[in-house]
Amino acid sequence: MTTFEAILLTIVTASTPLLIAALGELVAERSGVLNLGVEGMMAMGAACSFAAAVTFDSTLLGVGAGILAGALMASLFALVVLGFAANQVGSGLALTIFGLGLSGLIGAPFVGARRDPVAHIDIPGLSDIPVIGRLFFEQDLFVYASIALTILVAIYLTRTRSGLTLRSIGENHTSANALGLPVWRVRFWAILFGGACAGLAGAYLALVYTRFWSPGMTAGRGWIALALVVFAAWRPGWLLVGAYIFGAATVLQLHAQAAQFGVPPQVLSAVPYLATILALLLLSLRHGRAIGAPGSLGVPFVPDR
Amino acid sequence: MKADVSSSGPPLVELKGISKRYGDLLANDGIDLSIEPGEIHALLGENGAGKSTLVKILYGVIEPSAGEIRWEGRPVSIGSPVEARNLGLGMVFQHFSLFDELTVAENIAVALSGDWDLATVRGKLGEISRTYGLALDADRAVWTLSAGERQRIEIVRCLLQNPRLLILDEPTSVLTPQEAEHLFTTLDRLSAEGCSILYISHKLEEVRRLCRRATILRAGRVVATIDPRASSAREIAALMVGSEVGEIRTDAPHHPEGEMLKVASLNLPPAGMHGQSLRDIDLTARAGEVVGIAGIAGNGQTELFAALSGERLAGGPDAVVIAGRPVGTTGIDGRRRLGAAFVPEERLGHAAAPTHRLSENTLISHAAAEVSRSGFILVNAARRLARTIVQSFDVRTPEGDPQARKLSGGNLQKFVIGREIIRKPKLIVVDQPTWGVDAGAARLIRQALVDLARQGSAVVVVSQDLDELFEVADRMAVIHQGTLSPLKPIGEWTKEAVGLEMLGVAQASGGVHAV
User: Fold this and answer.
1) Residue B294 structural domain
2) CA–CA distance, A101 with A85 (Å, rounded to integer)
3) Number of domains in chain B
4) Residue A172 contacts B where some CB pair is shorter than 8 Å
5) pLDDT at A288 over 70
6) B136 and B30 share one domain
């Protein structure tokens, strides 16, 4: 395996959790709910999945626990922002802080434990193709699942009735309510989906990416996922592109640091974040208006009764 | 389906003693109303009379505090719009219930029950559009459409559901006379097919044209149920407002002089993908006169307003001249400093910030004037100014200094127009001054604009309401697909001629096409 191939493979691994978490947030935001708790739900997903995987020695149970943890965190958020129409920004920030703290508590007994690598799929023949062979045909299941999920979400949003209902509710919940669309129910499931995805992304981090647990290991990836949704203008296709650009920036700056360009490493580690800002800037220049943001995003829904 | 207007059976719907209380306010107070199958029943009343509340109760959007609804003689409780639709109610909302980022077809599809796919919806949409002459492009996003086009979506959306009772809230406020007449034909046909219609309007002539029974609300109560054809418009108006409604006083302009606005060969590319471009617009407005711009929604009125106000800049400074100063490349604030004032079509979100108090909203156009100093808001001055506007223009507010969104449409419109008039502008440009506003408020607004002109200001009124333009304008032009017809004295226009210009038939060499 050449260095080039190795870099490409790590890019895929770095991008996948971003993509999964951002997809979940995208669905929640398209329904009109801004959940800033992604980072916290991801941390909980990572801690719970690692704890379960080590305890039961099962990656599958670990993944299940991660998803469940994310969804539970999300249902707490849903209770607050839907049930009590609380401010979404405040509730989301609180969820992140709470998740980061609680995950540290849950994960504490497992600091220092390690998991074996998750098996990769290997299709004989196809994966022997030079350069692209391993890139496309010898990844772990999560990578394929994340791509499939992107396509499914895209189809769901644009081609299905339920997706249209969800977009309508995110666009204008007052009108949606006047038409009799179930605003609360749709938002509840969208928030839950967002939490499950964040939990899955956390599980991927703990079980595949690092294969150990340490407090704060999500390292801002939840925030990056949030930025990606904006970068992608709330469109799943763009999200895929964005996640990989960002994953690439993260990996390449590490290699650039290793190659010792004579640039301070702090500057290099800032590259992915600067890239995000630049991308956002270019995108809004091109379109000239705040594109794609759902009309009711972040606005608490209080029906007029 | 055959018409069944016989009074032997039970009414299609019967409201008994409906009341709705919001805190201290009784929005509806023991309202009785019944609608027969196939009947077109008018619901009349000023803004704030309780019409919207009553209709929302009937459509299941809000719950009544007391009272009973009977559907074909059976007591029903309509807990949600879905239940209302399942009973056979269809509703065209006054404040559109549309989704800006979705396409026309998606907006219609989302409200449909039963099985559908977008291709079928598109097909049906085309069918209804053709049958009822409501032209719509299925794949355009709603945010690119004008108010008139948006209303067409609402109407089509209802018709697609084959309703048994259709509720229309101010349906003709943005239609041309021809379009409105077309709608009436449609409604007559629906009525003959057995569909009942609850028709809410301020336009008394329309009500007299369409309805045999009208229920009049005032301050939450039924004041009368009458046959509108047996009473004059003036009598009905008196019942609605509780006093006589005067006509607009418009003496002839005293020799208008001094061009306050001059637009010469203004060209502007469309703002968005679906926007309208402006081509070779020539327009003048002199001190002391009211200039009217007629046209069907979406023919460039929004763009013209943006170009006049400075929200969009012209290619060169000379394209727009205000009070003798070339301002084509000057922004809106610079134009205001020259003594110009602007009132856009959209009240909430464009003319006023919905969640800001009225006093804070005075700052939107008075920033340079008496309500701020060195960047600080003079809170008391702003409150005083808001109070003056509220008193001078009869703005009815629920509390002393409410948020703009708490005001009803008519009252907010009086406020935003009053806010500009009180500055005594040399030039005022108003887009749709009385859209969705009740008769009393509309009269007040029109009179205020005419009075302003007679005091020596130039007034430009962009409107889709032809009656309004004939009432207030001294000279008028018609906008069609971004070009403006010659500006002629109002006496030289007939409604028919304006209608033809609106459709672009007057200039076109091709034959007259059916609407």
Assistant:
1) 257-339+428-438+460-515
2) 25
3) 3
4) yes
5) no
6) yes
